[in-house]
């Protein structure tokens, strides 16, 4: 599961704008960047896993890059590679360019603005590694999107998609008030919201979310999957607490109408800075997230 469309979960990327047109990416950019930075340990482990088989890539494409946190990690992990960050938001790409300059990678870093997957046709060269972090599921025909990504791979190139995993957890099952199991009930509402989002996408195609099978159907060999954890136990640092506050606040704002009244009341307390039982003050707040990466190789 773990689609997590409540902001604070996957808004660090915006490779498509079809269901995000109401968002002000320039305003959201600092928040998205700080949240992606919080997940850096998870991304670093994922990239280290990829680096065991992707050796000395010439061109890496970050499709749906957002503010470029992962693009920057690619630049550090593969110091000989050129990096192209692709995103539908120019304000986020500007932050990616600034980050690359700050990391000393500006001379081998470029950006490409446009919606996935069509914008990939504008790449000047085929990619040795194409990374898509939670961007494919925003496209109606995921199989066709993967095929379009494969077309932009060099022979022997690798496509890696971060999709699925497990729902994030921030609090114990029983938080001392209200009915235990709040986050599990939010997950159920989120599942329904995700399904509706998928059904309403232009050209939506119902497909089993068997990502290795989808990669194989797109023409890739040697598919593999690996799940990576972000485990920040209590007591969390301030930026992790801020992430939890923002995530639950946006969950309440976006999903509150679909929750039962008693669960909305629990969320109201959890995000109220004046309530000593809120996540602003609780000593038991933690962040536990699991994201899965699926990859495959284009035949030579």
From TrEMBL:
Keywords: Methyltransferase, Transferase. GO terms for molecular function: methyltransferase activity. GO terms for biological process: methylation. Residues 1-21 are annotated as: Disordered. Residues 7-21 have a biased composition (Basic and acidic residues). InterPro entries: Methyltransf_25, SAM-dependent_MTases_sf. SUPFAM superfamilies: S-adenosyl-L-methionine-dependent methyltransferases. Pfam families: Methyltransf_25. The keyword Methyltransferase applies. It comes from Streptomyces althioticus subsp. attaecolombicae. This is Class I SAM-dependent methyltransferase. Its EC number is 2.1.-.-. Residues 60-157 form the Methyltransferase domain.
